[in-house]
Structures
1.
Amino acid sequence: MIRHRPHGSGHAYEPTDDQRVPVIPLAGEPFEVRASTGYDIEAVVCEWDDGDGVVELTAVTEKAAQRIGDSGGDDDSHLAAAAAGRRGDRHRWVVRPAPLAEGTSARYRFVARHRDGRIRTTSWHTVAPAVWRAGAGRLRVIAHAQADRLVEGSDSSLVAADGTVLRIRFALRLAPGAHVVGFGERYNAVDQRGRTLDAQVFEQYKGQGFTHRTYLPMPFAMVLGGDSWAFHVRTSRRTWYDVGASDPDLLWVEAQTPPDGSLETVCFSGAPHELLSAFLDETGRPEELPDWIFRLWASGNEWNTQARVIAEMDRHRDEDIPVGVLVIEAWSDESTFTVFRDARYTVTEDGAPHRLADFTFPADGAWPDPKGMVDELHQRGIKVLLWQIPLMKMRPAPRGQAAADARAMIDHGYTVMEEGGKRPYRNRGWWFPQALMPDLTNPEARQWWLSKRRYLVEEVGIDGFKTDGGEHAWGEDLRYADGTTGAQTNNLFTVEYPRAYGELLRDSGKAPVTFSRAGFTGSQNAGVFWAGDEDSTWDAYRHSLNAGITASACGIVYWGWDIAGFSGDVPDAELYVRAMAASCFMPIMQYHSEFNHHRLPLRDRTPWNIADRSGDPRVLEISRKYARLRERLVPYLAQETRTGLAQGRPLMRGLFFDDAADDRIWDFPDQFRLGSALLVAPVTTPGAGSRTVYLPDGEWVDVWTGQRHTGGRVVERATPLDVIPVFATADRWAGLEAVFADTGD
């Protein structure tokens, strides 16, 4: 067979082997048209008609793309294997027609000759170029109580052949020395000046800091230094930014537009917390979550039986490492994601939800008594979250309840649709390929999806959900029940997904605690977040610090990461301890490990496993120190969060929030405040015997020694393995001294 899809798969960054590149060419600019075939095709031509009759363009064969994802490194994990997405059974065929002039068009199709002489063709398609024109779109830049930031005459629009405005771009002024922070969660740097990036939700499996890709983008940033201001591009569509990269004095914004060609951007002025507060007034403010989220979270993908879970919690207790939250990932049958593995029950052929009484749990099964287990954990003071994915798995072919649920989704129109609404969308990404995706803009689909999980909250008694994934909506051609397309709603799916689960929890009398990695504008009030999948490397550690500081600058309050990374071989003792210490002073402190096929030695990120694997018993001692300290910090974290929510100050925040006028803080971008009283300077390089710390103006106290320092200067702090530099403001030290009392050097 031969395949050509003009728009490809919808991958945000890598054109597929069967699409136009670019999808809509620019007038007078080169472009290419691709088709893909099996290796049984020996020749391909493109029949091309630009108005002067059909001519044959000979397609040349090129090496097909080897992956649809990027593992971000060489490892043998199950996710890395999925991300590799090998497609070695396909040929890519390419033609490069002459550039099309403005006002012209062409129609074309591919014709393939099989080895046995058979001929295969694609449908006919039409292509017409777009042009950039000044003033064609409807741009509105709103400035609040400040000079106009828009560069006069800079706006132009990308106009399709039929007159539709596809994009608008414009420039905002950048003052010398200004720093630009935001754009959602960013791994590559805190200050984006001098860089280019975009805002599109994407699942970048590991290595995010070496790219500009992110799970959690937002079209918002603060421009700090001197006359501080911020801007919000009021759209859920894709946007692009050139932050002084092409011209150091200009910040270029480019955005996809709706069919009416309109785009609105608002500019705010004020101090950083005022800028963030103004943004949150538009997007929704974070809500206060229960204090227990500030305790230590623990999980491992191989903790996949009741016996293993209880054993791990017993070990935490025996090692005096207090746990507040347990996340169980591999609990389900891995097909419905609503039923505990090994449970026995009668299939509801219409896809109706079950209640707890419908299940029998064999004594020799993986989960002989889920409710009893949750009750026991609650008695120990441990909250329980279960893992979820917003997909209906279709490979391998579903059976039993999974098959019934898939039929129900299709028969009742509960799925996101593709091809103009003609058929259910099948996941085009690398994780759970071809899976169905629930349309959460459809109230009936949303209610049905949540009803399948209601018994877990109301009867089993769990306390929240790890709402993993969410980045699976690829393609502007997708159609949602509310009448929107993929261009408008794909990014927003990541917001509605945890919100939906939060509604279920709230309706059941629980706090809306969800734990997500993907998001967009509006995620500020959609639960708790972690930084996504990452290797156990020093680079990943540094990149995660960037992510936390930038996410908080956009209003993500409840944020953490997988301590020292979750993928690949275990971190060494030094990296683990440094990461554990830093995480003690982040909003969410949690460790997690990837599935490793239950091979030995274990890759669990528990302190005792790292101590055993590294041969360094100090790992366990130091981890115990910081886990116990974390327990004592909970009241401070809870109170500072309450205060910060009212003021527009996130709990974890870059120094620019409190000391925006101090230019020296930008030389120390990895330092941050934890609330108003603590300054944290993580140790992020191996073998560091000391750390240079900048203390802004004021009086400071070293929390480990009680030594006082006058700010506005740099200090060199010794950093033995068990010490992370942390300083308290002198006026708050009396109330914090007892918290640090038994954790001295």
Note: The radius of gyration is 27 Å.
2.
Amino acid sequence: MAKDFSTMEDSNRSSNASIHEVSDPARRTLLKGGAGAAVTGLLAPLGLAGCTTAAPLAGTLLGFKSVSVTTADTVTVPEGYIAHALAPWGEPVGIAGNTPAFKFDASNSAADQEVQLGMHHDGMHYYALTDTTGLLAMNHEYSDDGLLHRDGLANWSAEKVRKSQAAHGVSVIEVKRQPDGTVEVVRPSRFARRITAYTPVELRGPAAGHPMLQTAADPTGRRVLGILNQCASGITPWGSYLTSEENFAFYFQGPDRPDAHQRRWGQRKEMGQYYRWHEHDERFDTGKHPNEHNRFGWVVEIDPFDPTMTPVKRTAMGRAAREGATVAVTKAGRAVVYSGEDARFEYIYKFVSRDAIRPGGYKANAELLDHGMLYVARFEADGRGRWLPVVHGQGPLTAANGFADPGEVLIKTRQASDALGATKMDRPEWIAIDRERWVYCTLTNNSNRGQAGHPGVDAANPRANNVMGQIIRWREDGDHDGATFEWNHFVLAGDPANERAEAQGNIRGDTFGCPDGLWVDGRGVLWIQTDMSSTAMGKGEFARLGNNMMLAADPKTGEIRRFLVGPPGCEITGATGTPDGRTMFINVQHPGETPSERSDPANPRRYSNWPDRRPDGRPRSSTVVIRKRDGGLIGT
């Protein structure tokens, strides 16, 4: 979700000691040899500074010619590649007997939207069925009511709230590759499904049934309506789909006087005014239903192969405004789930399952993520780090400090991490793992870093007014369930032409800002996607960076090349591919987004008319299929 820096959540007012208080700011650890080197004093740009890479480095994974920065209203890919929109917002997912066509005047009903692809596609994964068919499970992060309704927010009604809620959630669609290499959506499909902001969902794990999760509508505290603000995603070794609830605070109208818990989770009186759901769906009024807010912010598990399965919120992994959930497997067969909380000065987490993964798919592992240990990361100034157990009764996590039981620790994961002294990060978002067990995390930006009243720079977050962001990485000592790790920065994003040193970066290759999406493909290429805000693109320190883009990086050499540029206003997000490496899927989210992040219903095409280019149309988020014209491997 593109965000105006000034409106983003910044709720961490804890006084836990960050490493900026004890670290030497000159000791900043970066990737050695490849993308950078140890930095002392002011940060200096390293490597190539142009818009395109002239020639590949010896032994590189990257065989394509970089594309240039552009502001064109299209998807630009390298020579020899082709890209086309596959599944735009509003197209039917393929539920038999219920496939309403998209209406370009935005007159589709809420009932139509319930069975159509939602708005603002985000994380996704491809699940192969055969050599030529598979499923795409994808997130729909949020809605733009200026595009969703013919007259926007005017004449606000329960039907509009219902349609907005239906535009959120997850879609599962079936796709098929044709003999000529093109890909099409299969309709109807027995797998087709929509999950929305009012689909029944189960709460399971240690916090399920806790008094803080009980409401008048659900006195058991075990059944929630809906999922919200789904961003990045994860795939499990047993074949399920993980999706996380990120900026859920913005949907709730806060009480007149939020208590300390509500304030720590971003609740303010005016928060609900953006979506206005509380006006026709009372559960989003925290003043009337104070526990409803606690029922969001969880990792949700879905079986994409079973459209009748009830989605499950896994409370053992803790509550956070997570971007996603990335799964690794230990040598002993246990699942390790890494995640970052996308808000300024929030944390990076790891969950280790108690039990080993069993053969037999989702049904055999339906309770695996309900039992295990949650940890939060502390990055030390010497390039080492520790995982701090988030466990009731250990250290400060006691009843005397406001944590009455294990369930309360998980519901108050932020407060628990504050008390433990975890490292406050610059918006940790997507996480990916390479072949050498390095775990990468995008830290998209944090313009408040080093500003008055906010934490200063530290070794892991080394730039004040960090508008450009960076990618940090770590490798566990021993296995993924290790208690300690080594860490460094893979790259600091930026433009070396900028005057301010903190905005120059040290990229070895093509310039970019605000890294967000990450994916390691089957060949080991690290794909990086960007999310520069529509309020910043083309201005100031972003003046030379064009539209948001996707880049490819060689983890061994650190070389980074620009592979794709999207249309104006969009975010590039979600990356997955077929097992043979010859078809890639990415998402173009919110093309034509306005600086206010809400479109003008009277002029929806002001900034973009992608992908349909109709004179009576409107920009639509869409999944895009990318392939080589010669049928070769993506990235070569």
Note: DSSP finds seven helices and 30 strands in the chain.
3.
Amino acid sequence: MTTRTSTSSLLDTVTDPEVLRVLPPEQLPLLAAEIREFLVEKVCASGGHLGPNLGMVELTLALHRVFNSPRDTIVFDIGHQAYVHKLLTGRQKDFDSLRRAGGMTGYPSHSESPHDVVENSHASTALSYADGLAKARALSGANDRAVIAVIGDGALTGGMGWEALNNIGGSTRPVTVVLNDNGRSYAPTSGALADHLTTLKQTGTTAARNLFTDLGFTYVGPVDGHDTTAVETALRTARAICRPVVVHVVTVKGRGYRPAEADEADRLHAVGIVAPATGRPAGSSGRSWTSVFGQHLAEIAAEHDEVVAITASMLRPTGLHPMREKFPERVFDVGIAEQHAVTSAAGLAMGGYQPVVAIYATFLNRAFDQVLMDVALHGLGVTFVLDRAGITGPDGPSHHGMWDLSLLSAVPGLRIAAPRDTEQLAELLREAVAHRNGPTMLRLPKATAGPAVPALARMDGMDIMHRTRSGPLDVLLVPAGPLAGPALEAATALEEQGLGVTVVDPRWILPITPALPTLAARHQTVVTVEDGLRTGGMGTALAQACQDAAVTTPVVTLGLPTAFIPHGTRDALLAQAGLDGPGIATAALAAHRARHQPRPHLPAHPITTADSQEA
């Protein structure tokens, strides 16, 4: 693949779908090639989802030639494969700011374009949105406005997708379901559905009975997803039928870019800044927290035959690949099915095994009820490892792992740990897996593993990280996990202001360690620091624990606001929330000064004539 030059191209002329719809069909292969060149150039420079979009080029061209967006509604499941859609709806110039603060998001966004309908980038939701939109069109008499849901075979492994298929197929409302079948999400799709789709690709025809026809859909396919004319024909057929239709489109993830097509791991699903010629980073960025977790879990699994692992279609992104390589029969990929993953883990625990469920923090939101009722209620020893906990950075609002502490703090018996460095990760992981009397959880950031952050001493299970050598105990800083580093930076700044500071890492942050309120009572001000919501997490729990213990030391909680935080770099977003060293120091100093500031003297209320008469 050649690099695009600065000369004008066919792509430059396609400024909106109207222009695309009048292009002669013979120009579409050239346009597809230019789009792929553009994507490789821009995504390699900024990072983002490369493989999925390279496989969507011809399909997206056909969608916008057949349907009239935004009058017709196209819903992309997850949305990470919508870069081509963005290109064709007038945002070519915005790709230089892709996933950068204030720039274009990596997912559909209302604020960018009326062509973008759904912003939620969690999987298996598109069909439910489409079901509701079709109901709305029927109620309002707008059945001429088509509803199209584009969903991958990987996302269709999620239970919510089948709930929607059950409803759509049982009606006569027109919905076009475009099944983008590339045989994988990250890794190859597995399970009975994958087997059925393989059979359809080998032997299926539009006239044959299959799973989708039994659910009430008309089936069109399989269609070569890289033949724009064939896809257009299939989509026009689906629109004309005016009832629920599944258009089965077969695509190749990473199509047209040799490094992606050769990548057996995930077809360059998501990349950082990489060299376009190779698809690889120019240099090493260091080991990630995820890879360190994977190494230690594999070591634990080698020592304990009862340790098993579960992933929801994210084997490599959550670090389970090393264990799969050594113990393939003890690692289970259940598809994009977080609820099933958690309750299946409960069953494994009931059967005498020690399950480790590795999952992105934001995706565990979907399985809260299963954590609460299927695991915790039964007191089962399931360990959850939440990858990308806290601020994740350029993936934006639906990927920040900032909700878990506020949600899961309500689960009885759940113990939550937050390692401050990868040495503590190894130690806490072993403690978690050894705990058999209830669920445990570890929170890991999306970050490069830095140097160890040593403790001065361990006291009642907590690590004392810093203690002013002499003088009063003014401020106690209580950071969660990796925020220990910024808290130590803040301690130095506070000491320069003449304050005595202690920094303690609770290690197990919820429920509150009983010794922590006692330590808080010895200080004038307590400041907690966490990269979850500032309400409902560790700080809220510590304030309640202090109140219960009759400790009067005020607790100031620092954390993330209750808001959908946009994309940006992790460090910049934490600083904006006041969770860097200077921000913590400023908040702690203000809280301490407010506690010791003399109360203003209020003059006595003068008695008026009316007051005197009433008296």
Note: The two ends are 94 Å apart (CA to CA).
